[in-house]
Batch of 4 targets.
Target 1
Amino acid sequence: GDMYTPSVFGVDGVGNEVVGKKAYERLYKTASNDEKDNYKGEVKRLMGTSDKIYIERANKDFFPEEISAEILKSLKNDVLRKYPEISTLAVVITVPAMFETMQNEATKRAGLLAGFPHVVLLQEPIAAAIGHGFDSKNDQNWLIYDFGGGTFDVAVISAKDGILTVLSHYGDNFSGGKDIDELIVDKVIKPKILKSHQIYNFDKNHFFTAFAKLKSIAETAKIELSSYERVAIEIDDLGVKDREGNDVNITFTYTRKELNELISPLVERTLKASRDAIKSSGVSIHNITKIIFVGGTTLIPYVRNRVEEDLGIEADFSVNPLTIVAKGAAVYGLGQRIPSSIIDKFRVPTNANE
């Protein structure tokens, strides 16, 4: 029933594979050293690499596409529970424009492993443009600014002669909302704790569980600061004692202004990438009619205002940035045809004589 499914996979204490919100909460919110070895998030950053992720309870090494496949299976099963008549012969999976051949092939393998015989890949900027109602009949240019949880992508999209084209794109696999959460932990929360408590080797290598909880607290504060000018950050039940044996308990106020100053260098990097994308597209910035925001990080007022003011292009906020890519993929899927060879192979006989 939620609007989206967090891309987290893991195995619980009795061996059940867990995907989505419950897995996300076990990894970040109720984290323990045990859960650290049994849940994995942000796998998109590893697609196309030879990295393996060991899940202790499964006693198995997973390739990134195998974990991605488990997430896709979960999404498919969610659909079939509600709409059992839906065909799952084919799937549209969106990928960043910056994904190269190896990453795209790994994504396609994930779709096949998830049980979809026909996999169609669609670049996320194109999906966002379609989801926003980009009319390919009229020649125009848009900037797609995609600041998600794990990655950043920017692309210039053109419609000319009825064809949508990515003219240029820049991306960073390691700039996203999760990086902002880590900044809040490292630059704000951790120094506050160490100012009042002496703790030896207080870092995520020695206190993984505590830092996973702090990351969740940072994320909540970040989200609340999109609506409020200041929030109270309360640290308790961290499971950490200082050198005197006292529990770590602190409360302090954090403001939107402080958050803006903290993330300013990160936003500036995205703006530089946006200017580079516009320059390499060959399109004058004056001929780009609008900015379309994608990803949860673009809900931060400072990000929206800074991008619009710095680039001098009007931003359109009319479509939810969390679902615009999925909406575009759905619309794109309406125009796709499943190869007859696949339809024939999986055709279900209507009677015993067929």
Target 2
Amino acid sequence: MFKKLSFSPVVIAVILSLALIFWLLSGDNYSTKTDAPAEQQIPAIELAQVEARWSDAQPYQAEQIAQGQVLPWRAVSIKSQQAGTVDALLKQQGDTVKQGDKLLRLSDEGRTALLAQAQANLKLRKSELESARTLGKSKFLSATELTRLESEMAKAEAELQTARLAVTQTEPVAPFNGVVDRRHIEVGDLVQTGTELMQLVQIDQLKVTAQIPQQHISALKPGQKVTLRLLEGRELNGELSFISYAADTATRSFYIEVTVANPDLLRIAGGSATVEIQLEPVQAHRISPALLSLDTSGHLGVSVVDEQQQVVFYPVAILSADNDGAWVSGLPQRAQIITQGAGFVRAGDKVVVAGAKP
């Protein structure tokens, strides 16, 4: 008879565990052979969202502003060309004078007598030369003697010119139309050659000088209209009349002159003023200064969304700015400017525009 087999509970648990594992493995193996793997899902890329508004360029009257010095159109210090005593003052401070007007008179100091002597001497030399030329034709006078007499004649003419000039210089005259701005002498004063007598200025027309930085000089040209703003608030109109051809070696700036009419003879010469030069109109956008940013190279600019919905960074130049906004150049004629979110995107990024305003 057969002997009955018996197993302990431990053995039975082991056998059941092995059977279970075998069944699981066989099922997975079959599934991998018959079922195709599920397609892997690629997560969708979310585009950055920005807000933007459309901006159209407008003509902007650009200006070059500088601090200038108002000067008389002409100014000269009248100095004595002869020594003597001031006999008379023919013009006083503040008097208007015409070119050629006598300003004062110095003492004669014998100059009129020297003039008369020079005239007589010249007359004598002329007579001697005429007689010598007559003798020369008859061969009674040598060529050397004739040359000597001609030299004496030339010397007498020079002495006469000097004597006549000395007399003329005792009465200095105005070299141009103007105003006697200062008088430095009084009647009875003894003056020497070179002594300052009067200061004469022409102020019916003024010139304003200023210095323009080298990076702005290319926008200037003679003939441009200029507004002159005085410290007291008054305004005058002028014209850019001169631009230097070489920059100052110390400041690298260019010297300019502005011509300003002053028919009312306003007392502004010698003062300072703000010079506003009107440049050619340029196309510019009016934006908030908060929209300006710097790129990786440190250039100041504005971020714009193009037709492909990509971010483009445009370097710009600030033409003017105030508390309400800034005028900038460098953007396209029509641009979709990012107003919100520009700090979270870079040039070349594709974005979604929300809240675009026409």
Target 3
Amino acid sequence: MDKGDAVKKFYFPIHLDSGNRGCEAIARGTIQILDILPQNYIGFSREIENDIITGIEKQISYINTKYDFLKKLLIKVINKLKIKDKEKYVYYLRYSNFLKTINQDEICFITGGDMLCYGNNQVNYIVDYLYNKNITTVLWGCSFGEENYTSEKFKALSECSLITVRESLTYEYMTNKLGLKQVLLYPDPAFVLAPESINLPSYFENDCVGINLSNFVSGSVSATTCFEKNVINLMEYILSETTMTIVFIPHVFWEEQDDRITCKYFKNKFKESNRIQILDTYKLNYCQIRYAISKCRFFLGARTHAMISAYSVCVPSIALGYSIKSKGISKDLKMPDYTLIDYRNLKKQNELLEKYKMLQQNEHYIRKILEDEIQNYIQKAYDAKECILRLGAYNDKN
């Protein structure tokens, strides 16, 4: 289909911004799958400067990328007040102007992947607003499990015109347990993206273990939790028993979630070693970071879209997470159980090390599984375009 044949605008109020490279990845993958021109991909960005750093702003048109001073002030005041449902007032101030631009013959995509895995948030507000305006709403590439359920979220799910889920565990829960009928299963849109070659630091000439950590899994930055002791024990093993270099690869730079803080903490635990590096990814886009991950021999990742990169380039990896999204994607790619670690329920200080040793021992086996699965898996992500076509998003001649 020719890009010029697209006749509707596609709105993305949860684009947020590329300070989280996962948000950028979803945008790039969606544009590639649906073949959308920049003027028809309308995004809401909290900080357009982050999009400019990654270059994604060239593929997106924006509405209300900045709050005016009065609106910011009102949001701060409301957040400090003890009033019922104050979040709704904040969401109204933040999103109302954007949502009011959407017409009934256009489509709104709710992205973010795991937005529904946290507390009740703006997704509920936005979907309810669109439903009442009779606007086609697609919940796009999501994950959602029983532990995430609230009645407010179920209402929002029921009001979506279409739901695409990115792994089979969410699909089974939504269709079998919740009885939702408008649910389809397609891989996360980020799987379709290709690595973008860049010049990497010379330490990549050595075999590298790439590690992506976030404060979501490491909690407070101090070596007091069992998970953090597991990470330190793994690093000690790599430094003492192998010649490989440890490369930390930050993926999120938002002030409240900055991966670099956690990476610096662990690097500083081994100040005397010259085999621990932090790749400066702040000015790299998602596809360039994927290229760096492709040059690692092994990878351990906390961020879902960092793991998606590792899977996509067939690097033997361990997912440092045990939410439904981590379990579901790992299951659908036929990964062995030892490539997923439940960081919330570690009992021993060497559990991560034990799983890493199994990863080493089965390196070629795991790589072969990924090589056998990944191309068909990526094609399934492209197949998601058909369900959008059926919503009447393009001219009949397409």
Target 4
Amino acid sequence: MFVRKKKFFGTDGIRGPINEITNPEFVLKLGWAAGKVFSEMGISSVIIGKDTRISGYLLETAIQSGFISAGIDVKLVGPLPTPAISFLANSFKNAAGVVISASHNSYLDNGIKFFDSRGKKLSEELENRIEKMIDEKFQVVEADCLGKANRISDAGGRYIEFCKKALTKNENFSGLKLVLDVANGAAYDVAPKVFKELGAELKVISNKPDGLNINKNCGSTDIECLKKAVAENNADFGLALDGDGDRLVFVSKDLTEIDGDQILYLLAKEKFQHNIYLGTRGVVGTHMTNQGLEDALKELDIELIRSDVGDRYVLEKLEELGWELGGEQSGHLICLDSALTGDGIIAAIKFLDAINFSNKVYKKNIKNFKKYPQVLKNVKTNDPEKIIKNKKFNALKKRLEADITNNKGRINVRKSGTEKLLRIMVESNDSAKTKNVSEELESFAKNLS
């Protein structure tokens, strides 16, 4: 079957600078186009959430006008994490979900993410239908068919209660001291309430969003402030979310970073180490997943299957295999036994629950996971495809890959699905070779960009 090459949708919705693709004129038309497609599917309303970046006010107004002009009712919830909108879309009858967010990007960008009426990210086929509708002539429905808008006043409270259900092994977080970095983002209000209501002693940082400081020197992509706060507060753990609350990174008491691969290993070990589990013992990672995770899971007789990079592809592979647990090194963790999409708060609860809140238990359980040296280089370029297809670049990549094969090495080169970047990942069991190969590829790519 012919698949239309998408013009606007990337690996996680539509994202870009506010004065380019995510301008209000386009977003108005996008809302109308999505509304027309949703209406054809029997969806009568959309739940619209957002993060805290200043452009959210602008785009919220634009996209709700688009939906209303297509005859779709709008339910506004204000700043809430992306996974909260997935949960709400699944909770309301005949409702889709929309999130206005550029995730871990700076305030200069924004984006639009969609969830269907099951709370799942849209299929490729639905994204193509929306893109095709964008090309159609904008036509407002008759006046008596226009949609209406209102607010869901208790949306945050509903989501908080939903998250708390992820704690199953322990009664509460009593005695646990945490530092929580909410990235001045969408989770700034609900995330602290979840952990406080579960009984944790909590220090919250990066929780004063001003529209311009989302992800700025904070959150899951910059954990230096979190490390400092963990040390100053003598906390058991620190945890950082990203701007829209679907990524998670931990910091242990000794200030060691615990990334998505390590969290996934602990969650898998907890899930499958008991013989009562029925079904295939399997986990989905991506092509970026550290080889050390695959080796460590294999020792536990747990299979690792890799998907393309992007949590939507992890989810698709989980559904294809009928599995429940998957994730990315960057901190997107999907636990389908508790949520329908990646959820940083729920993953944090499950991780802490699995190790009984103890750094000693964490270190004991992680000791067999030995990460391979891995280097990720990001090269800014307006045309990453040009570099990927360059014959000389590919010849160099092939030669260098052969050079590290004996060191269990591999190279992954791809374009970012969310930014104008070429991502180069090099991994082997020789740290010096890994570093040298990554730098050589980066230098060559920069000369081509």
